[in-house]
Amino acid sequence: MSRTLSVVLRLPAEWRRIEAVREAxxxxxxxxFADEELAGALAMVTxxxxxxxxxxxxxxxxxxxxxxxxxxxxxxxxxxxAVEAASRHVEALRDRVxxxxxxxxxxxAFVAAMAEVFARGDPDAxxxxxxxxxxxxxxxxLACDESxxxxxxxxxxxxxxEPGAAAPAPS
Length: 171
What we know:
Blueprint: E1 6-11, H1 15-33, H2 36-56, E2 64-71, E3 74-82, H3 88-101, H4 106-120, H5 129-136, E4 141-145, E5 151-159
Antiparallel strand pairs: 1-2, 2-3, 3-5, 4-5
């Protein structure tokens, strides 16, 4: 089947916009795929990625770019934002994505990330919990791309069934 969804939004990196975008993406996915679980999960993924871009990104008049693309039985949510060249957050992002990928089951990564937060005793510290949530609750694989200087793109990809078909078995 050909691509059924391609959305690209450039928006200001503002907290107050995230909820509206989360709702809009959820409704768009529900309309295209008629799958409430997929729509809800990827709406959450969208919000988590946007929150990270606002929290850890560099202020940029160009804002952040959100893309939601469907192709070949999968949906990918991507968020691109500006970053400081020397930011420790980019290295932490890269490390957390690699750390999550080492777990056979994303639920185990989520539990381990939660344990780190509780062991540290500081729930406001940079925990990477949102990324583990994307992998576990969102059912996504994560990747980060730093190929454009001064920018980072985080992509969360999830398989889905073609509209009207049975859902794929989890891997």
